[in-house]
Amino acid sequence: MLICETPHAGRDEEQMKKDLDLKLVRNDEPANIRAVMLSLGQAARKAAHLLALAPADAKNTALLVAAREIREKAEKILAANARDVAEARAHGLTDAFLERLTLDAKHVDGMARGLEEIAALPDPVGRVLARFERPNGLIIERVATPLGVIGVIFESRPSVAVDAGALCLKSGNAAILRGGSESFHSVSLIHECLLAGLRAADLPLAAITLVPVKDRAAVGEMLTGLGGNLDVIVPRGGRSLVARVEAEARVPVFAHLEGLVHIYVDRAADLGKALTILRNSKLRRTSVCGAAETLLVDRAGAATHLAPLVKMLLDAGCEVRGDTATQAVDARAKPATDEDWSSEYLDAIISVRVVDGLDGALAHIATYGSHHTDCIITEDNVAADRFLREVDSAIVIHNASTQFADGGEFGFGGEIGIATGRMHARGPVGLEQLTSFKYRIHGSGQTRP
Amino acid sequence: MLICETPHAGRDEEQMKKDLDLKLVRNDEPANIRAVMLSLGQAARKAAHLLALAPADAKNTALLVAAREIREKAEKILAANARDVAEARAHGLTDAFLERLTLDAKHVDGMARGLEEIAALPDPVGRVLARFERPNGLIIERVATPLGVIGVIFESRPSVAVDAGALCLKSGNAAILRGGSESFHSVSLIHECLLAGLRAADLPLAAITLVPVKDRAAVGEMLTGLGGNLDVIVPRGGRSLVARVEAEARVPVFAHLEGLVHIYVDRAADLGKALTILRNSKLRRTSVCGAAETLLVDRAGAATHLAPLVKMLLDAGCEVRGDTATQAVDARAKPATDEDWSSEYLDAIISVRVVDGLDGALAHIATYGSHHTDCIITEDNVAADRFLREVDSAIVIHNASTQFADGGEFGFGGEIGIATGRMHARGPVGLEQLTSFKYRIHGSGQTRP
Domain of A371? Predict the structure, then answer.
């Protein structure tokens, strides 16, 4: 019988790490994994009840102490990370994977700064979201409360543990973090820093739980909701992880499957703006979900706009896959197939198509879009307003780069992910979207007629 | 092969009714039911896309014309209802069921007035929920949008079709209504009035769909989400319906399983207020989810408060099931068992217990509560604030009747239900909670560094 103990204050850290390793060795039986995960869920639920009432000061102390710990342990974290990277390389993982896994001193400092920034944000719990006085004198307030227990399933990036743990803590939610087994040593050390913060603030350690089970069955258990002890799941990783979570989760999910981001260059676009915005949207970083994947050019502006836009992309080293009009303006452009309109490249490749005005752009986006982020470039405010209104995406942009699709850029002080669903959260999921609410009614003896 | 046609404008109503009856006769094969339901879902999704962009005027016209139709067809509706009631009686349904099913002229007028009231409310779509300007000059707005397609599964009350259809329409959502087979004739006629409204406003008739399938398999199909064409389900009915929907639905659910409502009378309660509020909370209507089910009395105030409260209840004809202290103050009080603390009576019965102050009350509610509505009666604002903060219920009340737990009383112009979950909606679900949002970004050429 395997018992999953919640780490507690005053315990020797090295011993704790050994326990985790021990558990990993023992956790090969599915029945045990189920019991461990259920027990983690129950402990997290208890922690969530305490955390919901925790004062802002305590939560901020925990974040600041965790930041200090991360700075102090930077070398240890980098050493643990080097061990993860070496093992991942030995297992033949791709260069892109190794890049996401690898930490340097700047990354570690960034984690600490992230914690400090989140500590400095206003407490999202207890905000009065609405207040109305009824004719009978009742005062009704809608007040923000935490959601409960949030499960975060992530792959290679160790920094997700810090971002997710900190955002959940600040918003009064307990977090159950399940990182990829390849980042296990890095994430375990980072988690210890978060625990040190909780300990210093006298907050329950189960407020931020790291799943100590490498077996993938642990993910399956989280998808079932841990016996009602998990309120929402946030998957952070590649398409296959998100698709699995969306298909199998029995609890709500905040996620986006893909970011098939469009830029529509209208007949009334300023060409200079279009060139600048398109280049930044496509090429600033090609691997982020807000990177542009398809350029739509208004037929009525194609004579002046299409060639310069396509040449700029090609000259900058971006592969262009276009319709016949696009291929006609530059011999370097390759032909696009139907599959290209549905492809999120996450690479220096773009699909380009000439469309019949705003209606054509709207129809193309309605057919191929992923409800993530889409942009219109135009000096015509009527066309812009219609685009912003009619495109059914979480983020719709007029005359700015699509790479602003990011909680930090929105001023949210970080994000736990970007959601394309319509329930509860949509777009960058920051502290506000990690809260629910309740109604407080203040009376003076009123009864209902 | 059965084809489910969406009724269309200009079609003769009698013919439409015959078609529905015809479908009922044919719809005995599960494969057909699946095909019919999928087809309804697809039509509703298309309608939702149009409805999301419909101007407020068109939606309000539809509501007002539907109200007029209901007034004009009042006699027909009452006749159809009489047929439903007669059939239900012949099938041996309970008096309580028949009472909920039965309509009179006042009910029908109330339906029409409800439609007019919802038409008069501000349009919830397009509201700017938040607006922030970033240091780089970007202006970011969070704007309300519809949710999509809302499924409503209800039992005996025909008026739910009007409330739900109207709230969904006003909030730009398509509705798929599935009423109990016992109310089929009444609801079909009411639905025709709603369709007349849509037709007059040139809105798609699939915006408000009545499931033309009596077979319970139709509910099962809705719970699967109709091939991704249903975004949320609202069950309106008894505990067994809600429990089934909550257990089986593969889409989000707005619901409450029960309303185990507590009133805590603190040591610092004003006895007069306590008597008035308790009586109204328990006895105004005993069958509503906001009716009080358990009275908790502070031990420190029991000497002065317990006896008058218990005697008032007993004198008013309410059965009292109490702990030993309660039984001691009046011989008419019966002993409470452990089961009583978990019982939602929905009847003139109350459980009564003396607790050790606010901590005792909070502990009792945390153990037995249903996260619906709970109330403290006290003149001590510190105690009240702590109760409102620490009780984890959708609605927490200080010094007012628990029967105010109602969207109409909140000023929401009606509600589609009351939710006890924490995702998206909580408490009375009105127009605002039937919306999602998106982000509109207004730029002037900004790119991300």
Answer: 261-409
